Amino acid sequence: MSTAHPDTLGIDPSLLEILACPDTHHSPLTLDREAAELLCTGCDRAFPVRDGIPVLLLDEARHRGGGAPEPGGAGAGGAAT
Prior knowledge:
Layout: H1 13-18, E1 29-32, E2 37-40, E3 45-50, E4 53-54, E5 62-63
Antiparallel strand pairs: 1-2, 2-3, 3-4, 3-5
């Protein structure tokens, strides 16, 4: 049962096929091996993968546009800290 998946950061490839963004649009996610993240194709969020476990929490995601996650999800304007 401990079959390693080094090309997919330890995530089972069949799971990668069905993972989607947890935001309301549920867009597909793609894998960025170098950054160890799952990237949303719809909202430009990057979700970390830690020890082979995708962390699909909006509060843990970062926006690849350069900023921190916006409180309350997409479209909420927050001040930079």
